[in-house]
Amino acid sequence: xxxxxxxxxxxxxxxxxxxxxxxxxxxxxxxxxxxxxxxxxxxxxxxxxxxxxxxxxxxxxxxxxxxxxxxxxxxxxxxxxxxxxxxxxxxxxxxxxxxxxxxxxxxxxxxxxxxxxxxxxxxxxxxxxxxxxxxxxxxxxxxxxxxxxxxxxxxxxxxxxxxxxxxxxxxxxxxxxxxxxxxxxxxxxxxxxxxxxxxxxxxxxxxxxxxxxxxxxxxxxxxxxxxxxxxxxxxxxxxxxxxxxxxxxxxxxxxxxxxx
Length: 260
Ligand code: HXC
What we know:
GO molecular function: enoyl-CoA hydratase activity
Shape: globular
InterPro entries: ClpP/crotonase-like_dom_sf, Enoyl-CoA_hyd/isom_CS, Enoyl-CoA_hydra/iso, Enoyl-CoA_hydra_C
Bound molecules: hexanoyl-coenzyme A
Strand content: 15-25%
Oligomer: single chain
Radius of gyration: 19 Å
Number of strands: 10
EC number: 4.2.1.17
Pfam families: ECH_1 (PF00378)
Structural class: alpha/beta
Keywords: Fatty acid metabolism, Lipid metabolism, Lyase
């Protein structure tokens, strides 16, 4: 598929790389960009040869937010009636793991986009922030809720109410990102692709189940979440891959997963 605002490639046979490509606007997330992103994610999700997706931006910006110029003159009645930006949440229905490789600015909707991914790796240049307060508004793509789950009330309040940008190191200390990779152009993307390749070597049916149960932790009570995890765990005993994985261990050999 030909896109205007994103690039797609296959750096590894089982890993799709999606690069936000509006460099002059620091990857501001205009509506057509998001429509393309959703389409590329769905295509990768539906392609059985793809096991993981890496999402990245440029060295200067992962994404500097929703497109302010596109939004500035909108009226309540329009945004309400058209469910403005509600399609952003479509990516949370993707079943395959999405790894964000963040360099430079991840602000506003750009920070929220990263937070909708499953794993975030940061380059030392990454800066995260919810600066909407400086524009007379608040996060609208889940930032207030997802950050509160991850970093707690005080840090979320500070980010949302002051708009302060936090460094890659702070984001790592706070648990927003899983780690900061070593310095260098493209290092964070390389590392994210390596994580995707590692995931691709597993049983994809258990990867999908693993993503599903971890995400349930953000929706369910502890008792319901534990029961859900146990049920899915039980269910995996019906797969060929569980038999293969455990037999291979007992026979001291490498498993050969068939994703069934
Ligand atoms: C539209 C943007 C943009 C944005 C940058 N640009 N961010 N355009 N929407 N979010 C454009 C600039 O207008 C400029 O275009 C070009 O990108 C380069 O940006 P500069 O500002 O010249 O670069 P610099 O001085 O290096 O500053 C970088 C920056 C700053 C600190 C990241 O651009 C900035 O503050 N951007 C806005 C960040 C922000 O407020 N994000 C939250 C948006 S609200 P020209 O044409 O002048 O060269 C949001 C709500 C989410 O995200 C709701 C989700 C549902």
